[in-house]
Records
---
Amino acid sequence: MWRDALLVAGKDLRVELRSRVATNQVAPFALAVLVLFAFALDPNRGLLARATAGLFWVAVLLCTLLAVQRSFAMEAADSARDGLRLSGLDPAGIFLGKAAAVLVQLLVLEALLAVGIVVLYGSHLHGALLLLGSSSAATVGLAAAGTVYGMLAAGLRVRETLLPLLLLPVVAPVLLAATRSWEAALSGATAEGNPWLQLLGVFAVVYLSVGVVAFGPLLEDA
C-alpha cells in the first residue's frame, strides 16, 4: 500500500511540476483572495486583524477545491482512471497517494498565504508550534476529505459544480477548528487552541480511515 501511495503521489506531483498549474493559477488565485479581503475590510484595520485567521482558512479552503478538482481532472483525461483501475495498485494506496499530493500542494500554498497575511494584514505569527500543528492536522483532513469526495463526484457529468456542494458542508468543522486554533495562537493564548487541535486530529484520522476503506468501491463506481 505504501509503495503504491508513493508511486501515485510522485506521479501527481510530477504532473503538477511540469504543468505548473498550482504555480501559475492556484497560487495567484489564493493571493488575489487575500487582497480582495484586504480591500473589503481595510477601512477597519481592527476587524481585519481579528478576522485574519478566518480569512486565511477560507482562502485555503477555496484552494483545496481547486487542487482536488485538478487532481481528478488529470484522471479523467485519456481514460487515465481506467488505467488506475487496471494497474493492480492497491486502492488504499491510490487514495493515500492522491491525498498526499494534494497535501503537499496545500502546505506550499499555506506557506505562501502565511507570508501574505504578514505583509497585507500586518499579522504577527505567534505560537509557532500551535500554528504548525493545527495547519498540518487541518490540511491532512482537507486533503483526505477532498480526495474522498473528489472520487465520489468524479464519475458524474456535473462534478465541477457538485464537488463544492458535497465537500464544503463536510469540512466546515475543519474551517471552524482551524480558525479557532489560529486565533488562539495569534493572540498568544496557545492553551485555548489545544482542544481545537485535538478536534482537527480526530477529523484527519476519521477521513483517512474512511478513504482507505471506501476508495476502492468509489473508484470502481466512478
Note: The mean pLDDT is 85.
---
Amino acid sequence: MDQTRLSRRGFTLIELLVVVAIIALLVGLLLPALSRARQAANTTATKNLMSQLAAACASFETDKRRAPGYFSVREMGSDENVGSAGSPGRGMTAMENILLDLGGKDAIGIGGRANPNVGNDSDWVKDASPINNTPAAAQVWVNPDLIGAGQGNYFAPPKKNLVYLTYSSSIGAGQVGSGITPRGDGKTLPDLVDNNGQPILAWQQDDASRVPVSKRADFVAARSSGVGANPGGSRFYWGTNASILRSTASGANLVNNTAIPGNPPDLSLLAEQVTPGNAELDTLAAILGNPGNPVLDSTQGGSSLQTANANQIIPGSARGKIVFHAPGADYIYLARRQGAKLFGSDDNKITFGMTFKNSAGGGNITDTSGKESSRNLLDAFDDVIVAN
C-alpha cells in the first residue's frame, strides 16, 4: 500500500519551479531566434519584390526606349509637387509615378474614365499629377483597383504590397501633401511597401540633366525648381520622396521620418534639414553615387583624390538609373544609430567620400596589409537597396 502511494506521488513544488524555469529559459532563447528568422524572411521577400520591380523597369525601358514614369523627374521634383515642411505640395511620390507606367493602360484615363461606359467617376482618383492647374481635358485619372491589371501591365505585385497612403495618421498612414483628388472611398495613388509594411522609396535619375558633375548640387538637390534648385538640373531630387520623408506616421508602423527633437538615435539621416546645410543631401549622394566613379567637388577645394578629405569627394555618376530603397528591420531610412556604429561618430550625415576616407581627419582607408582600400557605406545599415 505504501509502495503504491509512493509510485503515484506528484511533482514537488521545487520540481515544478525548476520545470517552469527551464521552459521560461527556452522561450527566452527561442523567441529572439524566431524573430530574427521572421525578419530575415521579410528581408528576403522584400529583396525579391524589389528585384522584380527592377526587372519590370528594365523591360519597360527596352520596349518604350525610356525609363518608366508617367511624369518627368523634373516635374516630380518641382516646387509645386514638393512644397515645404510647413506648406506641403501635391505630394506625389516617385514610386506612384513609376507605377502609373508599369501598372497597365486600363488604370489610366485622360480627362475622365478610360471607358466612359464602365463604372462611375467616384471609382477614380482625379487630377493625378505633380503639377497644379492642369486643364480638365488633360487631367490624368487613375483607378487604383486596376493598377497591375489589364493591358500593358509590366508589374503586378501582391495586393498586400500596394498601399494607399493618405494624409490622415488616424487610419494607419500619414503621407503629407496629397493635393491629388482622392476617389469616393478616400483611396489615392498606391505606393509599394516592403514586407514590413513600410514604403519603398524610388530614386530616379533626371535624364534631362546634362550638366557634368563638378559639385554636390550637380548630383543631388532638394528640388528641380524654386529655392534649393540647381541651375541646369541635378541627377536626383530629394523632393521626389518628400511626402514620405516628411511624414510623421509613415506606413503600417506609423514611423516618424522627420527630425525628431530630443530623440537623435532614431533619426533618419534622410530627414529634412536634419542639420543646417542640408545634410540629408550629402547622405542621399552617398547612397546613390557610383563608388567606382569618385570626383572632386570644385566648391570644397582639394588638389587630388589621393589627398582630398571625405567632404571633398562626390560621385561623378549614379549607381543606377533608378535606385529602390526599403528601410529594413528598424523601419527607418538610414538610421543614425546604425551609422554611428561603423563611422564612430554621432554626426547627422554620411558623405560619399567616406567610401574611401576615414570620417575623421581624411586619411585614406587601408586594408590589413596597408594598401589603400574602400568600404561599402551601406554595410552600416539594415536598409535594402536595389539599383536598376
Note: The CA atoms of residues 128 and 311 lie 39 Å apart.
---
Amino acid sequence: MIRVKVCGIARADAFDAVVEAGADWIGFVFFPPSPRAVTPAQAAALSARHAGGPRRVGLFVDPTDDAIAVALAALPLDVLQLYVPSARAAEVRARFGVAVWRAVGVGARAELPDAAGAVDGFVIEPKPPAGATRPGGNAVALDWSLTAGWRAPLPWLLAGGLTPGNVGAAIRASGAAAVDVSSGVERAKGEKDPALIRAFVAAARAASAAGGEEAAE
C-alpha cells in the first residue's frame, strides 16, 4: 500500500483531517520563513489532539542542535526531516538517536543518491526554482521519470508539486511507494483544506506503484 505524509500542518482542522484520512506521517515545519511554520509549543498542542495515529515528523532547515533539542523536548518526534549536507545529517542522527530523512533536490538522474550514508531515508524532490527563498519543491513537480527504475539505497518518499489530481500518475511514473504533500492540499498558501487532504490520501491509496520501496519508520 502506498504510504502518505502530509506536511506543513499548522491548524487543528488540518491535523484532524490527516488523522481521520489515515495518513502514515504528519509533518510539522520548524523553519520560521515558511508560511507553514509552527513553534515547538504549537506543534505539541496539535499533536496532543490525538494519541497515536500518524507518526510525527519534524522538518528542519540547517538547524542547530539546540533547535532540534527544543523541539524534541516539546513533543516526541518519530522522524527528523533535514535540509542539510549528508555529513551533518549523520551527526544529528548520532546525537539524538532519532530516525533521519535527508531531503535531496534533484534535477537529473545522476543526482539521485547512490549510497545510504548514516540516515534512514530520503525525501526526493525538485531543486528549488531560481529565486526561491525556501528549500524544497516549492509546488514544482519533479520529472517523475528520473526515479523510474532507480535502485534506491534507502527507502524514499516522492515530493514536490503533488496534488490529489496527479498523485496517482506520479506514483505510477516514478515507482515511488511513499509520497509527501504540502501545498498541493492547500486552499491558500499555508492554509490546508481538509477536503483536499482526504482526497489526496484516497487518491494515493488507490494508486499502485510500479516499484520502489517503503519509506523508513
Note: The domain at 3-206 is CATH 3.20.20.70 (TIM Barrel).
